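Researcher: First entry.
Model:
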Amino acid sequence: MGFLDALLGRTKPVKPDLDQLFGLPSAAITLEAAAGFKPTGVGSVCFASVEGGAFAQVQQDVQALLDADVERGGIAIESSRDSYGYSWMTARQPAEDIVSLVNDVHAINSALESTGFGPQLLCSLVNFTDAQQRPLALVYIYKRGSFYPFAPKPGGGERRDNALELEIKAMLGNDLRVEQDLTRWFPVWGAPGL
């Protein structure tokens, strides 16, 4: 950062900090106590796919690493692609085991990052629902190192419950680094489990 950058309003980008994901279990306690939202046991990582053998090999290695848990009673990781062309790796754990779910999501992110594919990482989600079956995801923005709530309205269509998102933002300020720039709260339509 130089003087000219400061003068022109340029800022140094925030470095991704995957360890922020480990704040999700305490955020889950806050969500349940304050708003009645409980984890669904579904978490996912979204990334831009890259063509080529190296990326395919990394994806297979991540799949094999996490599928090794299946032999010990764990749950397999699923790969999918959404209608926008983004790739997803989805982990499923028992709803009450958010710690294992966060570990799986962290492992996927870490494996992609450590093999040089960090720039392809877009976001990670952990899904929640309440007694009225309203869906909610806490979204970690890889390139910003922060979280935001995403609450699609039930019943189909691409509509968001903005009031609920702002309510959740206010609740989680002590548990997670919440993204303050609301223009960066992008919708994640078609995310697995929502």
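Researcher: Second entry.
Model:
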Amino acid sequence: MPVVQYRPTAWAIALCFVLAAGTLPCRAARANDEEAAAVPGARDDVDTSHRGFYDRFVKDKLYIKPGVSYLDFSQLESSELDLSGVEFPASLAVGKGRIAGATATIANQSIATIGVGYNIPGTGRHLSFETIIGKPIDIDFIAQPGTLRDQSLAPTADLGNLVTGDSVLEQALGQTLSDLGSAVNSATGLLDTGIPPLGRELGTVKSLPIMMTLTYHPFPDAFVRPYLGGGGIYLYNYDAEISNDVLTEVSDPGFDVSSTPGYILQAGVDIGSPQGGFYGFADARYIGGATVKGSLSDVNVRLNNQALANTLGLLGYGEDIAVGDADIELEINAMIYSVGVGYRF
């Protein structure tokens, strides 16, 4: 029986070369990855185009920090309430300009927050960007103890200013003084307006803080990892409204709170495994350089003294008096203290 000898054809030989060539890049890529893994810091120079999105952009880079934050405005500085557009008959009880001791502040509060950070590639997790996300904050403006909260802004009216030589007004004034007797000082003509103190609550505004900080982690691979940071913030304020019963008794005055930029200084510590997973954190942020201006317009108040209202009625005015406009500035020197549990992907 004749022996048949197998001779590979030209196409079979070519196919073998193609298959062999196709496996070489894969083997080379695996070898490069294994070699890079053995050399710290060398992986950044390896072609990662064959790796997935998670490995390239998320792993060892993205982290989140859900927690509870306490907003402390106790160091806030307030200007005195500045009145403008004061006209007769409001000028009988109050004048234009600043009212001594009439200051305001912002109420402290606790809110839920979520911090989001991203380790900058190529920095070995030493540098990262951080921000805080969450729903808009309801900021409460309150009157500080003193003139604005505890005293009437217009306690008395100087009826002496009504004596203009008009016989009708003089007769009305004389009748008022006669009816009230010792309640009015005949020399000064001062009469109680009956306008009460404003009390504690003034108004509210929704505030969306947009912030970003650059943080430095000197010991990214330690169990206890302190860090420092700094950056900017923009307080976007909207939907301001007056919540004070005295100011809204007659009508709803206009209320506007300006938005403002500022700066942030940050310090904190992460505690836990430096590997991916959960860890605890505590953080403090200082907000400075931000000044908001609260503006009230078309303020009207009600006189709770019928004799005074009747007297002004002779001039065509009633018990509801237009006071004018008011402005106040608050310099935000706030602290944000946060604690919670972080997670690094």
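Model: Note on the second entry: The first strand starts at residue 62 and ends at 72.
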